[in-house]
């Protein structure tokens, strides 16, 4: 039976927001190293960190200071740092960071192969904009679709935080061949705690994939609430495999039995019974405000 050993690292902010982005990055990278090495000792083959893992979740601040946190991919410091560890440990590593590309800023995850080579990136597609989460001040919506990375261990997809509320992306990744999808997040108690487990369990079940959901922990100095951790793995049956604590820096590890994907797809035949010919109105938005037709009873 084909199996992948996957790892997720959740972590609170190291340092404080009065420091420069470069100083904070250095501290966050250093704090991750013991967990990465632990993952290596446990045989983890695919590892992922939380959203913008090397910085605070600065979006509530609307402070231009944080544009200095953005870096190029794959030549920026965080991706280069993790390329060394990916090669050393023979591990696929997903590195979610703040990206700058030709003067445009994105919320992005780079994907590194077990030989340390850069495999590609996913840019967050759904960018929210609310008073306590002004992501559009910093991030441009993604323009790369829903790529799937063919790694030596599995076919890997990435979906970032707010993306997870949109079922179309999960389905696109599954149709593109993803077996395991990671969802690095930064989500606080007041926003989506009630949805955290059920939403991603449903996505795994509806698409017959494994999902690794990562959230940060702790309180950061904005009116945003506490991050509640609770990173977890869910299998294609919608069952939670392993779940982290709500408050601690932590590595969690799970064995993903990939044969279960095909077993569940045969059982539920979701892909065979799809009706894309009927979904056009949803895709193009023409369902909105469409009048309801009432039929007289006979």
Distance between the termini: 58 Å
Q: Helix and strand succession?
A: EHEHEEEEEEEHEHEEEEEEHH
**Rg from alpha-carbon coordinates:** 19 Å
Stretches with pLDDT under 50, minimum 5 residues: none
Global mean pLDDT:
93
- What is the helix fraction of residues, given as a range? 25-40%
Contiguous helical run count: 6
Shape call: globular
Strand content: 25-35%
Major sheet summary line: 6 strands, mixed
The total beta strand count reads: 16
Structural class: alpha/beta
For the largest beta sheet, what order do the strands appear in spatially? 5-4-3-2-1-16
From the structure above, extract its key features.
about 300 residues; alpha/beta; six-stranded mixed β-sheet
Explain what this protein looks like in three dimensions:
The chain is an alpha/beta fold. Helix content is 26%, strand content 26%. The protein is built from 6 helices and 16 strands. The strands form 4 sheets. It has a 6-stranded mixed sheet with strand order 5-4-3-2-1-16. Strands 8-9-10-11-14-15 form a 6-stranded mixed sheet, with helices on one face. Strands 6-7 form a two-stranded antiparallel ribbon. Helix 1 runs parallel beside helix 2 and helix 3 packs parallel to helix 4 (189-207).
Summarize this structure briefly.
This protein is α/β, with parallel strands linked by helices and 298 residues long. Helices cover 26% and strands 26% of the residues.
């Amino acid at each position: 039976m084909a199996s992948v050993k996957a790892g997720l690292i959740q972590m609170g902010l190291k340092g404080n927001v009065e420091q420069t982005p470069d100083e904070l990055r250095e501290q966050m990278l250093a704090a991750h190293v013991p967990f990465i090495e632990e993952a290596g000792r446990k045989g983890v083959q695919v590892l992922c960190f939380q959203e913008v893992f090397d910085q605070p979740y600065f979006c509530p601040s609307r402070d231009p200071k944080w544009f200095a946190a953005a870096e190029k991919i794959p030549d920026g410091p965080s991706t280069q740092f993790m390329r060394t560890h990916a090669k050393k440990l023979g591990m696929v590593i997903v590195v979610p960071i703040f990206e700058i590309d030709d003067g445009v800023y994105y919320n992005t995850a780079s994907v590194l192969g077990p030989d340390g080579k850069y495999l590609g990136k996913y840019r967050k597609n759904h960018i929210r904009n609310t008073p306590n989460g002004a992501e559009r001040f910093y991030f441009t919506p993604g323009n790369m679709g829903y790529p799937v990375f063919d790694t030596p261990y599995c076919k890997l997809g990435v979906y970032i935080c707010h993306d997870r509320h949109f079922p179309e992306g999960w389905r696109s990744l599954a149709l593109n061949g993803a077996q395991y999808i990671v969802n690095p997040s930064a989500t606080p108690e007041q926003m989506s705690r009630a949805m955290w487990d059920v939403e991603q369990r449903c996505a795994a079940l509806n698409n017959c994939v494994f999902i690794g959901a990562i959230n940060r922990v702790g309180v950061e100095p904005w009116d945003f609430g506490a991050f509640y951790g609770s990173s977890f793995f869910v299998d294609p049956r919608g069952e939670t495999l392993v779940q982290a604590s709500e408050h601690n820096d932590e590595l969690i590890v799970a064995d993903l039995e990939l044969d279960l994907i095909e077993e569940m797809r045969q059982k539920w035949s979701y892909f065979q019974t799809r009706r894309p010919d009927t979904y056009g109105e949803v895709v193009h938005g023409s369902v909105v405000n469409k009048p309801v037709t009432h039929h007289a009873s006979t």
